[in-house]
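Action item from last week, closing it out:
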Amino acid sequence: MTTIQADEQKTEDLKALAEQAGRDLEDASALEILQWAAETFGKRFCVTSSMEDAVVAHLASRAMPGVDVVFLDTGYHFPETIGTRDAVEAVMDVNVITLTPRQTVAEQDAEYGPKLHDRNPDLCCAMRKVRPLEEGLTKYDAWATGLRRDESPTRANTPVVGWDEKRQKVKISPIARWTQDDVDAYVTEHGVLTNPLLMDGYASVGCAPCTRRVLEGEDARAGRWAGRAKTECGLHE
């Protein structure tokens, strides 16, 4: 078997594994799902975190102490988000890995003009989020996210374990079936770190230029790219 054939076979095996696990683990607890991921992938597994809260990172650290937690530093984060990352790194049994774009904000401004996020948010996200994540995930076979089905209509069908066709990796969403009440209860029970902005009217925390507080009755994602048709940064599309 050639190297290319071996890689193709591995991809097919991972895809089949993901699809089967999605069915088998649909009713499993978040911790059980992450224990399965740790046992199945070991060091080829990581957690990604926007540092909105550290719930999935905390869960993963219970299943796999020292687990890699990947954070995308876009250069546009609120200071509170960077502070949450630093606190997570200091107090939790995880290995925080910070990924950065190829260009600084200043370099991007010089090439594309200031405030690209206002003129072409899709391109900005592609360069500052999507590309760094794809490059950062190359050494992993599986990654975990904090996606929940109740966050927005676009996430309503999120599987607890699925296949990330774009990146050819197993994508795990251990708290997909959780509600915000479940998240709040876990945070309270375990004293999990959360971004201070969640106590200041922000229901979802992204880059500062593209995030606002939500209004009463809006869904949690309404404060992201408000006034635009855009609802996702591209990481989960």
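Closing note: The helical segments are 3-24, 30-41, 55-63, 79-91, 105-112, 116-119, 121-136, 180-190.
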